[in-house]
Amino acid sequence: MRELFLLDPDLVFLNHGSFGACPREVIEEQQRWQLAMERNPVAFLGRQSAQLLGQARAALAVALGARGDDLVFVPNSTTGVNIVAQSFPLQPGDEVLATDLEYGACDAAWSRACARRGASYRRVEIPLPYEREAVVDRLMAAVGPRTRLIYASHMTSTTALILPVAEICTAARERGIATLVDGAHAPGQIDVDLDAIGADFYVGNCHKWLCAPKGSGFLHARPEQQAMLDATVISWGYAEGTGGHAGFDAYLGRTVFERRMQWQGTRDISPWLAVPAALRFQERLDWPRVRRQCHELAAHALEVLTRRHGQMPVAHDGDWAQMVAIPVPSQNAEAFRARLHEESRIEIPVTTHGGRVFVRLSVQGYNRPEDIEHLLAAPALQ
To answer: How confident is the model at residue 255 (pLDDT cuts 50, 70, 90)?
Structure first.
């Protein structure tokens, strides 16, 4: 499958989790949309884009177990988290609860949003080794009388763990608490059924494990929560009684949610329009089979390296998917990453959590067994 992607053939690329990698045919689809836009930018952006975006959203919604009307495109998960954080009606003394495994940029978004309103952002420790069954109990035990929202990743970034988000959402709803799930790494790597998860808000990336172009993500909101959300850019969707310039249907929408989020000024919408092509690519190549093969390769690397360095895995086999955090002896993480790249031409992140150091291995369909063997033979890992 390597030839279907545009990756440098001299690079052992084991870091799909950071920014993804896009298949050649999906990039070509994006470029076709860009060329179509340039033939008549006014017609494409001003009159056709609303329908085209609606069709792309509908295709994505089918893959995610949702309705197209309940999701909108955003550039990335972080943007979606910011929309919720800046919109959610917090009062002085309120609290947002999260785990201590969350993505640092989104921690910062919530910390800032809470500080502006006199609310607090509190992170609950999830100990390692990871015990999935204990997560809900730990979070619910930390809930207080002013807890208004629980924020949790579907799959954590630094530690690559799958959190029990459906169970978290159920327990929170029983207590009248809203939920935001950060699914940056989930779509394309594990099955995602948004209706079954039941989060009030769910954000995700398409450019990571779905292999869509960079700058394609989504925000899903339950119907009763959509009216509270404000876009990060205020544009024509907020102009009462007008669609902006006459005849520009792109400024309109059938719902408040769509009107506010869809049009935020001129921008390249081709990454979103190419999402259906990424879905077709994975369907054609039997992606569930690909995901299983990737997990097996990652499990092999985990077993070899933990045994070699006298480390214990931080989670059970079913608690991670194609991306796994492999513990290694304590050292300078950035120096270690640089050495792997410089000595062995391996692109892989080295992460830290709780004073521990991990090689975060991502295995995607373009990776071969020899890529894993190259990693295991790297001098830095001996």
So the answer is: confident
Residue 239 DSSP class: S
* Yes or no: domain 27-281 corresponds to CATH 3.40.640.10: yes
pLDDT tens digits for range 104-117: 999 999 999 999 99
Domain boundaries, the chain: 27-281, 286-381
Q: What is the pLDDT at residue 264?
A: 85
Q: What's 297-325 look like in SS3? A: HHHHHHHHHHHHHCCCCCCCHHHCCCEEE
Dist CA 224 CA 201 (whole Å): 11
Is residue 374 predicted with pLDDT exceeding 60? yes
Q: Which residues contact 298 (CB under 8 A, 6 or more apart)?
A: 320, 322, 323, 324, 361, 363, 372
Correct CATH for 286-381 of 3.90.1150.10, 3.90.79.10, 1.10.150.20, 3.50.50.100: 3.90.1150.10
